[in-house]
Amino acid sequence: MTLPLRAIAVFEVVARSCSLTKAAAELFVTTSAVSQQIHVLELHLGTTLLKKAGRGVALTEAGERYFEMIAPDVQRIGEATQRIRGFRSRTALTVRTTPTLGSKWLLPRLGRFLNANPDVDFRLNATTEPTDFSREAVDIEIRHGEGQWPGVFVEGLAEENFMPVCAPSYAAAGTLELAELPHRRLIFSVKAQLQWSQWFASLGVETSLKGERLLLDRSHMAIDAAVDGLGIALESNLMMWRELREGTLVCPISKPPAITLTTQWLVCPYDHLRKAKVQLFLDWLRQERATWQGAV
Do 56 and 112 share a domain, yes or no? Predict the structure, then answer.
């Protein structure tokens, strides 16, 4: 019996994305065409592979088992096909990172990696959602968190120094006393690991923080808001290295305390470390980290 290879390939994309719409966009076809291919495969297998889940779809038990069995082979076939069809010796590297780290630290440096590796097709996926490496075609992730993820390779990207910052027009460097900060408009990055309350508590300062507040859910927005003079943000020198270097952000208090954390982590399955492209990226990233640390 002839295998429905097209339908199998479509199913792999749907199973990986858990969305008919996303699969259609990735495959450059209509949603109805995706549904038709899934129907063809279900008829061929004699079982249901997908079920509705809210606005999207989810795998049935049979669908999960089938996806686990075919996914590695479909990926290998895809990579082999790309190399034969015009890609030849080119390598695709998919990296997932948080939006702030991606836009503020990685992208400004990425040109050096691309220039040194012209045969690599680099794909950057920026999201705060952790990667499910068993289902998603991601080679390596730079993940925000505390670094406690069992069963995978984990390496801290860099130790970060957190400090209050603002535009020079809002307050010049070193001109405010620590006790004045709670009475200024404070910018909160609500998903950051270090919050204003923790920062003040570590300094032995008691404050209710009931003054003016600007709440943002991304650190890159907090940094940009501070640059625009909207208040004082508490951010990492890893994320705002360029703004500190260019003087668009300054620390409004003199001799800020050194409060350090590691919040960004290199994460991937251990077997991904055997991929040459992953090692290539890791070696480059470690070199960039050393260069950045040397300039701080």
Answer: no
Is residue 165 located within the same domain as residue 247?
yes
User: pLDDT tens digits, residue range 54-73?
Assistant: 778 888 999 889 989 988 88
Q: Report long-range pairs for 83-91 (Cβ below 8 Å, ≥24 apart).
A: 87/121, 89/119, 90/119, 90/120, 90/121, 91/119, 91/120, 91/121, 91/276, 91/277
CA 100 from centre of chain: 8
Enclosing domain of residue 272: 91-158+263-295
Q: Give the distance, in angstroms, between the CA of residue 237 and the centroid of all CA atoms in the same chain.
A: 18
Residues 26 and 173 in one domain: no
Residue 87 has pLDDT above 50, yes or no: no
Residues 46 and 80 in one domain: yes
Arithmetic mean of pLDDT over the chain: 89
- Answer for the pair 99, 224: CB distance below 8 angstroms, yes or no: no
Whole-number Å distance between alpha carbons of 295 and 70 = 47
Nearest Cα residue to 237 out of 181, 174, 157: 157
Strongest mean pLDDT among 9-13, 255-259, 286-290: 286-290
Closest listed residue to residue 168, CA positions, set 219, 113, 91, 227: 227
Q: What predicted TM-score, i.e. pTM, was given to this entire model?
A: 0.66
What is the distance between the alpha carbons of residues 109 and 195, in angstroms, rounded to a whole number? Answer: 28
Please check the confidence at residue 82 and state whether its pLDDT lies above 70.
Answer: no
C-beta of residue 153 within 8 angstroms of C-beta of residue 272: yes
- 49 neighbors 60 (Cβ within 8 angstroms): yes
| Amino acid present at 1 | M
